[in-house]
Amino acid sequence: MKILVINPGSTSTKVGLFEDLNELVVENIDIPVEELKKFEDLYDQIDMRYNQVMGFLNKNGLEAKDLDVIVSRGGMLPPLHAGAYYIDDELCEIMRYHPAQFHASNLGALVSSKISKLADIPAYIYDAVSVDELADVARLSGVKEYPKSSFSHALNTRAVAMEHCKLNNMDYKNSSFIVAHLGGGISMNFQKNGRLIEVISSDEGPFSTNRAGAIPVYSCIKIAKDQGYMGLQRYEDSTGGLYSYLGTTDAREVESMINSGDKDAENVYKAMAYQISRYIGSLSVVDDGKIDGILLTGGMSHSKMLINWIKEKTSFIAPISIYPGEFEMKALAAGGYRVQNAQEEADYLRLYK
C-alpha cells in the first residue's frame, strides 16, 4: 500500500511516502519568506502547496494514480473526536470557510482533496489539532459564553502514548498518561483509556521557545491596551517565551549561554522547566492520581538539561519516559494504514447549521 502523507507548516510543507508502515522518503520543502509574502490570504497558498507536493511525487517517479491513500494533518477544525475523517467536499468547505482558527495545517486537506480527485484516491485527515474529548467538568472556562477549547498536539501525543504501550506491553485502551509535547508550542494532555479527557493548550500553559503561554489576564488587558490585540497575538504566536527574554528561539543556544556562565539565561530556562513541571502537576489530579506514566516528547525533549530539571520536580508523580522529537509523519501514515485495513473506521465531518 502506497501512502502519501502531507503535513503543512507555516514556512514549509512536509511530505512523505510510505509503503505500508515503512517510510520510503520524507522531505521538508521550505518556503522562502519572500515567497510567503506574495500571499495576502492563507488560502491563496493552496496551489503553491499543491505544486510542491506534485513536484515531490514527480521527483520520486510517481503519479497520483500510483497512490493507494492520502493522509493529511487535520488542522484547526471545529471540535471532533480522535482518529480519521474522510476528506470530502463538505470537510473542505468547513476547513476553508468555517475553521476554528486560521493555521497553515488547514491547507493539508485542501491540497489532499485536489490530488485525490485526480485519480479517485481515498483521502483522510487524522488526529486533528482540534480533537475534543474533554470531560464535562473540563469544559468550563469561568465564563459561560466562552467554554474552553481543546487544541493540542493530539497527533504526536497520541502516537507517543500508543508507541509507549506497544514497547511496554500495555493496553492503550486501558491506561492513563500525562503526555507533554515540548516544541515551538507546548501543549499537554491527560489520556485515559485512549481519550484526551483534559488538555492544556499552548496558550494556557508554559511559555515555550517563542510563545508566551498563559499570560495573566490583567497583563493581557494591559498589553492589548498598549499594543492592540495583534500585539498580544504576536506574544502568543512568535515573540514571547525564550525569544522575549533572551532574543533567541534556539534552546541549544540558550544552553550554550548557560554553560558560558550566563545566569539570566539559566534562570529563564529553569523557569520554563518549572512551568512545565507545574502544569504536569496540575494534570496529576485529573483521574485522582491514577497515572501509568508521564511521557515527554517534542523537539525540546532532546535537551537533557531541561528534562533533568523536569524530572527533579515531577518524578514522584509517575514514571517518566522520554520520546525526543515528533512522530507526526509516521502517525499519519499509520492512521491511514489502519483505516484502509479496516482496523479503524473513518467518520464524516459535517457542519450543522
Automatic annotation (TrEMBL):
EC number, UniProt record: 2.7.2.7
Acyltransferase recorded as keyword: no
Keyword ATP-binding: yes
GO molecular function (one): butyrate kinase activity
Domain of life, per lineage: Bacteria
UniProt subcellular location: Cytoplasm
Enzyme class, broadest EC rank: transferase
Record keywords: ATP-binding, Cytoplasm, Kinase, Nucleotide-binding, Transferase
Annotated catalysed reactions: butanoate + ATP = butanoyl phosphate + ADP
InterPro entries according to UniProt: Aliphatic_acid_kin_short-chain, Aliphatic_acid_kinase_CS, ATPase_NBD, Butyrate_kin
Family: Belongs to the acetokinase family.
UniProt protein name: Probable butyrate kinase
Organism, scientific name: Peptostreptococcus equinus
Phylogenetic classification of the source organism: Bacteria, Bacillati, Bacillota, Clostridia, Peptostreptococcales
